[in-house]
Amino acid sequence: MKIGAQIRVLRRQKGMTQEALAAEMGVTVGAVSKWENNMTLPDVQMLCNLADYFKVTTDKLLGRVYKGTFAVCDDAPLICTVIKDSMEQEGYFCVGLAEDGIHLRTVFDEHIPDILFLDVHLAGENGLELLKEIKEKYVSTKVIMVSADNTEETLRAADGADGYVIKPFLPQPIMVAVDRL
Length: 181
Known about the structure:
The chain is α/β, with parallel strands linked by helices. Helix content is 51%, strand content 18%. It is built from 10 helices and 7 strands. The protein has helices at 3-13, 18-25, 29-36, 44-54, 58-62, 77-89, 101-110, 127-137, 152-157, 171-179; strands at 68-73, 92-98, 115-119, 121-122, 125-126, 142-147, 163-166. The strands form 2 sheets. Strands 2-1-3-6-7 form a 5-stranded parallel sheet, sandwiched between helices. A two-stranded antiparallel ribbon has the order 4-5. Helix 6 (77-89) links the parallel strand 1 (68-73) and strand 2 (92-98). Helix 2 (18-25) packs across helix 3 and helix 6 crosses helix 10. The radius of gyration is 22 Å and the shape is elongated.
């Protein structure tokens, strides 16, 4: 949905005319009309004012809809990139990429993701131990383990995970694991 259509929908839901919205925003009726017909866009400050007035996010006004947030903890940059690109193409928002447990904890301090992709074998730290820590502290976060290790022992040790993807992989197995959550 374009921003103009979204402004129109929100204005009408409030039972307002263009004149009333223009008065509330301190702009001309022509400005509101141009926004609603996608002839011009509100500037950044006005976008924030509109979002506050309608009690929605700026993402909602812009028509950006995310399915949820995710983070990736893997010491292989290529794996992080493949997961990040795949998830973003499907409408998820990345809140952090981490190469180890220390960086992952920083990600969680800033934003708790809905989904975490976690490598089993990280440099300097055991991903399975991190799995236990994450599941204890952040019960709402779904964890998908990512590893080339698919031995029975490792799969059993990752029992608390919500999914498991074997490396190397193409994007499709990532989305299959997410769809199963």
